Amino acid sequence: MIRPFRLHSAATLAIVAALAASPAAAQDAAPVQNEDGTITTSQEIVVLGGIGYRNRSENEAEPVVSYDSEYFQRFEPLTAGDALKRVPSVTFLSDVIESDGARLRGLPPGYTQILINGEKVPGSNADRSFFLDRIPAELIDRVEIVRSSSARRTGDAVAGTLNIKLRDGYELDGGYIRAGGLLFDDNELEPSLGGVVGGALGPGRFLLGGNFQGRHNPKKKLSLRYGDSPENNPDYATDDFDNREDQRDTREGKDYSFNATYDIKGDSTDFSVNGFYVHTDRTEDERSFEYDDPTAVNGPVRATPPGNLTVDNANVAKINQDNYSVNGKLAHRWSAGETSLKVGYAYFDEDRFETEYEVEFDRALPRFTGDQTRTGITDKEFSVRLEHEVELGDTARLVFGGFWQDKDRDTSITEAPRDRYNLTAADRQGYDQFARNPTEFVRTFGAFVPAVGGVNMIEEKRLDGFVLVEGDMPGVKWEAGVRYETTDLTIDDLTVPAALQRFTNDYDKLLPSASVKIDVGARGRITASAARTSRRPEFNYLSPATLEAELGDNDLVGNPLLDPETSWGFDVGYEQRLGRSGIAGINVFYRKVNDLIELTNTGEEGSEGPGTFVYQPQNIGDGKVYGVEFDLSTDLGFVGLPDTGIFGNVSWLDSKITDEFGKRRFNGQSKYVYNFGLIQDIRSIGAAFGATYRKQGRAFDRTVGEEVFTTYGADLEIFVEKRFGKSFTIRAVGQNLLNGAKRERFNKFTTVEDQIDRNFDEYELEREKAGPVFQLMARYAF
């Protein structure tokens, strides 16, 4: 159910009422949104007139790489995350065949600014990132990678910005419907339905869209655990084997999404209002079995070794999410320049109910344990932006303005008292893990109580001011400006002693930036930019609560006085147009990150006694990030193949951080990522086919108590389409055709001394695998 807009949203609607009385707004709409001065028809979206290539941004000085929906559409991505798998420098550490937390330049998701129609949106993640698998790809008009920052936008973009532009009324005339299904490796069939309509309405233009998507992801996991590692013992696999875990992990869900826009372009006044809504019902169902043998499996528990079942575990999480945003903009041109006012409200709500049931059979008295956790997160952002632009002669403009935002985030994590008791002999007799389930042993759980550090309220009020000068001369575009950001932070944690329940903090940052584009030679261009950006602290680090044994046997206490990390960054690139519509580009980037937030040993003894410590996040580190990005997108008309398109990109990524254990890259950064593909259009029979291949390099994470090495298998996708006339297309797509696998290696330690001395508490090898997915999708334009 769509939640009603509150008072904040009413401010946006007030703009509509004010504009309705404006004579300027009543002028006839001028459909000139597209760069070529035309409106896209629904037939052009459904029956593509050609192969989609990446674009070169012409309207701003910043280094922006743009990809229209035509670049992605033929491979039928389900979400914005799926679409972004094909653009430069974006990696994921998601589960197999899922693409949620985008990692631009390979950095953790919190370093990337995610915008929807140029505006920030809240999500559930503690690192402030937004999961892109919440936005259906069908809503996307284009994706922009903004490699450097500008004073126009908030500076939360150390790695860069991903701006997801949704379709609006000035980019579509007519409508289309989309219907089809997805067949998964376990023979599950999920539907996919959608529709979009746009056109003139009164003095302006409108667009309405809706989408329903069945989601399904069946995976299989295998974990092998040992008491030591190959670092210490080459024969660890036989000498130190502890247990094996077989797991079935199925993610099942339904997504419902809607978007709407209304735009009026008058002689002197423009108005627009847009919004989107996404509702997700999702169930994550895991069933795992632990055995005392690396390979053998026995059924009933009473069976003799080898292959005895040691632990039977069932975990079910039910997740409901509501995410919506509404934004209004009023722009007026007058004798002193152009003034614009933007008002926005964004809302995110998640309710997660998770239950874990486990029976431990490797005990003298087998034991049942049940745990229940309920997590509620509500994140609301209300913002107002005021800008004024004035001409400085014929080739330059002065832009200045302010931005105010009120962000409220409420978190509630409650736990039911653990249900634990020993099983009777009758309970265990004849227990067959393939026919029975630990859920049959559950008794009544107690009342939910707050988890330590789990009930808190965070409010951020920020007030920014900015000024910039931009110029547009023949062959040169440039911009230089500065942004001053101030933040007042209030944290209330209801699970700590009264003296610690409320903390306040305030900070301010000065963020200069500059960019230039210079045309050179025959259709070449040099781009260069420099900017200072920031990254705000993670929410889970701000609570003053102490979490016992959170880091191995070490404790973690939050720090509400953390400041943002800051970064100086530089980008230098070159782009060359090729043939009719092709582009080749290379870009070199560098980031110097200061005030890096790292976990620091306070020296206090931890709750587990001697040898353990209390850790706290503090602004004490620094790091460097650098790399090279290359991309190519062109047809082969120069060799007589105008209907053959090729595209590809490769990024070499690296970084350097020094923590208490030594040097490493930023956690989770892959060493490289590349993808390439081709599309062949066969005009004579109205058909096309194509393929893409993608691979990303190994990633490494190191925190107190744990080290993780992650590798992914390659991903191959193929499509075949047939067009019927000017209004109907059928497309078949095969995804994950190489049975993608994710492999992880875990080094686990009890104490910091053990981690330094390489005395393992556990060494684990885990493999997660999923099978191919097949889509059949039809579109009809009207």
TrEMBL record:
Residues 61-161 form the TonB-dependent receptor plug domain. Pfam families: Plug (PF07715), TonB_dep_Rec_b-barrel (PF00593). Residues 244-254 have a biased composition (Basic and acidic residues). Residues 218-254, 285-305 are annotated as: Disordered. The keyword Magnesium does not apply. The keyword Signal applies. InterPro entries: Beta-barrel_TonB, Beta-barrel_TonB_sf, Plug_dom, Plug_dom_sf. It is found in: Cell outer membrane. Keywords: Cell outer membrane, Membrane, Receptor, Signal, TonB box. Residues 1-26 form the signal peptide. Residues 291-737 form the TonB-dependent receptor-like beta-barrel domain. It comes from the Bacteria. Belongs to the TonB-dependent receptor family. This is TonB-dependent receptor. It comes from Sphingopyxis soli. The lineage of its organism: Bacteria, Pseudomonadati, Pseudomonadota, Alphaproteobacteria, Sphingomonadales.
